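Narrative summary of target 7.
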Amino acid sequence: MQQKTLLRVENLIKDFDVTRGFTRKKIGRIRAVNDVSFSIDRGEILGLVGESGSGKTTTGRCILRAIEPTSGRVFYDLHNIGPLDIMSLSCSGLKDMWKQIRLVFQDAFALSLHHTPCRRGMVCSAGFTALSVAVVIGWGPKF
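Modeled conformation, tokenized:
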């Protein structure tokens, strides 16, 4: 049985402008997400784990288009008809997608000092926060 890719992220980059003063003059750029690529097949869950400020939330927000990435491509199999380019979805298309994809923030303070098994077999480590991209389509009892 062949796995079906639900979400594919290719070369995702997000830069933020650094500004100064009342006129908000641009004085530089900070790269928050640098060339992130991954895919999630049906039945899989991906956990992004890293230190504070490492770009986990920014990556998730770019995937959902809550903020626009600087570059990269994101594809999602919205209705089992093949991958759709999230970057080209209209507002109504985004609203439909947002009903099926969620960002799940794990409570870093709930983790012990040792490696702790988190939900569905993901392993987290104390001192790190975790962000899971939950594809709601496959979260039924069939897992």
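Helices lie at 56-64, 91-98.
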